[in-house]
Amino acid sequence: MNRIPFAFALTVTLFTFISHRTSAQTSLTPSTPWGTWLIGTVQLPAGEKKWGGFAEIQARSNGVMHQFFYNELKGGVTYDLDRNFTLMVAGGRYATYDYQALSDGPLNTEKRLWEQLIINQYLSRLKFEHRYRIEQRWFTFRDGSHPFRNRIRYRLNTFVPLNHRTITDKTVFLSAYDEVFLNPVGPTFERNRLYAGIGYQLSQQLIFQIGWVNQTNYSAATFEQGVFTPVAASGKNNLVVGITYRLSRHSFNPEKLPSQPD
């Protein structure tokens, strides 16, 4: 089967491009307080008919468990081509507030649609997930403007079960991923998201995860009026707490990677 080599080829191409684009980046801006991401997900695993789906709610704060300023509501439909390949079409609503003036309403809201391909690899205890996503984004800002943007995302996610060879009932596992966000208009390299955490799959239905995520945004280098401004980056560390509940379906794959849809 030539599908797995194809996934590696796409991965190598993306990371070669990214390493070239980020070679001149500056250091991160001064450290900011840790924030919090709270994620609750309900999943319908694909069964014999291969159709599944998910719904998710997420809240983010500027501080640890306080100064909440952002929320997401999203859901989608999935289709398993086979054990290793899954397609998804999904959408959501995203709202950003000033945490010091929540009653003033959102600074901006976003409606988002995306199409996605996930490729899974199972290498003994080590599991890989390659996620390729194309997004269409409609914004409404407080000043009345309504811009539209596209974005391309790639995430490489790894899982290592600690007390079993597979991620099944009563399994403790480690998870780590890096995701890049590419903007076709510019700046091309828009964002990087790096995560590391630990999880516990109590049963096929219930999964808990806690970890750290650093999200760094990049602005493009400019040359205006004879002054060169290099690539600038601003990052923030966050505590991530996630709970996933899978609706009961007796025929779904006993080892379903516990990845977060975000």
DSSP strand content: over 45%
Task: Report the CATH architecture.
Answer: Beta Barrel
Number of helices: 1
State Rg.
Answer: 19 Å
Q: Give the helix level as a range of percent.
A: under 10%
Q: Major beta sheet, specifics?
A: 11 strands, mixed, barrel
Signal peptide: 1-24
Keywords: Signal
Organism: Spirosoma agri
InterPro entries: DUF2490
Protein architecture, described:
By secondary structure, the protein is mainly beta. Helices cover 8% and strands 60% of the residues. The protein has one helix and 13 strands, in the order αβββββββββββββ. It has an eleven-stranded mixed β-barrel.
Descriptive key words:
mainly beta, 8% helix, Porin, 262 residues, globular, single chain, two-stranded antiparallel ribbon
